[in-house]
Amino acid sequence: MKKAVRLTALAGAAALALSACGAAPEETTGGEATSDFKPCIVSDAGGFDDKSFNQLSFEGASAAAEELGTELVDVQSASESDYKGNVESLVAEGCDAIVTVGFALSATTIESATENPDIDYILVDDAADADFDGEADAENIKPLLYDTAQAAFLAGYLSAGYSEAGKVGTFGGMDFPTVTIFMDGFKQGVDYYNETKGTDVELVGWDGEKGSFTGGFAADPAAKTTAQNILDQGVDVILPVGGPIYQSAMDAIADSGEDVALVGVDADFYESDPATQDIVLTSILKGMDVSTKEAVVASGNEEFDPAPYVGTLENGGVDLAPLHNFEDKVDPALWEEVQTLKESIIAGDVEVKSYLAE
Fold this sequence. Notes:
Layout: H1 7-18, E1 26-27, E2 39-42, H2 53-68, E3 73-75, H3 83-92, E4 97-101, H4 106-115, E5 120-124, E6 141-146, H5 148-162, E7 167-172, H6 177-197, E8 202-204, H7 221-231, E9 237-241, H8 245-256, E10 261-266, H9 269-272, E11 280-286, H10 288-300, E12 309-311, E13 318-320, H11 332-347
Parallel strand pairs: 2-3, 2-4, 4-5, 5-6, 6-12, 7-8, 7-9, 9-10, 10-11
Antiparallel strand pairs: 1-3, 11-13
């Protein structure tokens, strides 16, 4: 039985816990609560307005709270140093389920889940497997994972076919598996296009083992310089992987004066950020909103299942966004090939390699 929320009794403890991490958690879902179940969410340093995975996870948790007739409590992290204090504040707040967004929160999530076995933890984008034994390190953590290599494979194939320069590029925030899985899939898609078409489209920024990284996930001068270095090599499609760093890529594209298409990640950039609409070819989608909502609703209904969720093309957890404004710029035959390729991946006729493929 989930414990009832006692906001008054917990207020003092929550205030003490928050003294080290800034603003107090906010109850964000409007309306009078009809359930005593309390869902909570903490962002990584990107914040909930990153137009990417933090925002999608927040939207999913908000939708779950609305469906359950309760209020979502959220707290944002400004930096890595906020993670532990923010999660502790949600424990003190009396949360029944805590969504932690991003692999950077994995260690904190494992620690908190171990200390609080009666709370359900939902970890977005990490397996919570610090000892690499194939299982989450606490029985009350549900990992939400996404085999984005499959959708990135489609984006790589599309980009190679679209490119007139015969060069496409990618770069990432940091050299982590949840970043390089996009870059790996993208490379495999470019390679597959070359194999099937007898072409030699070049990928700049990732060779399958090493590549270009900004060193963080902020839209800062380092990200813009990294993007510019890729653009200077003559690419006409670029895939930035790492939340807000795509904004720096947009600035670099604008400064270059060249006709370069952008490939988005996580959310459909055309929908989430109207500023991208004239340059975004497509986006590699991760259904974090849907999977987060389902996990929180299950917790609220006493049906929490800690088994890892892995999003694939087959179950709709990953996908490729529509072409939107590029529909008239992409050869219809190429787009049809991409759709056929998607079905071939689902059927197992075309193999996409990734650390989640098994």
